[in-house]
Design goal:
This protein is mainly α and 55 residues long. It is built from two helices and no strands. It is flat.
């Protein structure tokens, strides 16, 4: 797959995820946000433990 097609595919997938997120009721959106924040926190801690600066 060439880079242009791959980028377009990722863009389409991202838009589908956004649409799915926006279709959730507010309480479920809050759960998704909390889950993603926790994943980001864990990822940052893991990078710090490895000595990699967090982004």
């Amino acid at each position: 797959m060439d880079a242009g097609k791959e980028e377009e595919s990722l863009e389409v997938e991202g838009l589908r995820l956004v649409r799915a997120f926006l279709s959730l009721p507010p309480d479920k959106r809050a759960e998704v946000i909390a889950f993603v924040e926790e994943l980001a926190r864990i990822h940052a801690q893991a990078e710090e433990a490895e000595g990699t600066p967090a982004r």
